[in-house]
Amino acid sequence: MTRRKLTLLLAGATFISGFCLMTTAGCGRGQDRRKAKSVVHLRWFIAAILAFKDAEGSFPERIEDLEDWYAEGKGNAKMQAAFAELRAMGVSSFKGVLANPRTGSNPGYKYVRPTTEVFSDPVVLQLQGGEELGDKSAAYLDGTVR
Fold first, then answer.
1. Does the residue 11 lie in any domain?
2. pTM of the full structure
3. Alpha-carbon distance 3 to 5, whole Å?
4. What's the average model confidence in pLDDT over 44-60?
5. Contact, 111 vs 123, CB < 8 A?
6. Contact between 74 and 51 (Cβ < 8 Å)
7. Which range marks the domain in which residue 42 is found?
């Protein structure tokens, strides 16, 4: 094999390897972005659930009971911050909040109505194809999202 052919072969292999590496890295970042967007949805859900409880005296029966809370000026500062982030992401309706950007499922969240105020219990779980995600990522009654 001539030196020129060898150089072209190595250059081509380097280009293909670099392209594959960049494509793989891009996919990881895309997944991270979708996961971060889903966290915003979860933060809004938990803030809305707690605001609903404060206003109504009990937890919502169903996740759909929160639909009227998806509006500007509703809830506390945390809820309004999450609302503003959702609007900035293009979520214009409550149906959009139910769609999970991480999994692509709609509905992409499952509400588990608390029976007590145990703050370590998950109240909103993420769904993919109607099934809970195996990583147990959820919003908890104490306001945390894991």
1. no
2. 0.77
3. 6
4. 93
5. yes
6. yes
7. 37-140
DSSP letter for each residue of the chain: --HHHHHHHHHHHHHHHHHHHHHHHHHHHHHHHHHHHHHHHHHHHHHHHHHHHHHHSS--SSGGGGGGG-STT-S-HHHHHHHHHHHHTT--SHHHHHS-TTT--SS-EEE---SS--TTSEEEEEEETTEE-TT--EEETTS-B-
How confident is the model over 79-125, as pLDDT tens digits?
899 999 999 999 999 999 999 999 999 999 999 999 887 777 889 99
Residue 7 in any domain: the answer is no
Report the distance separating Cα 44 and Cα 78, nearest Å: 8
Going by DSSP bridges, is the β-strand pair 122-128/109-111 parallel, antiparallel, or unpaired?
A: antiparallel
On the CB side of 11, CA atoms within 13 Å amount to 6
Handedness of CA 99, 104, 107, 109 (dihedral sign): negative
Task: Count the domains in the chain.
Answer: 1
Q: Is 6 a domain residue? A: no
Tokens of 141: 């009654």
Q: Is residue 28 part of a domain?
A: no
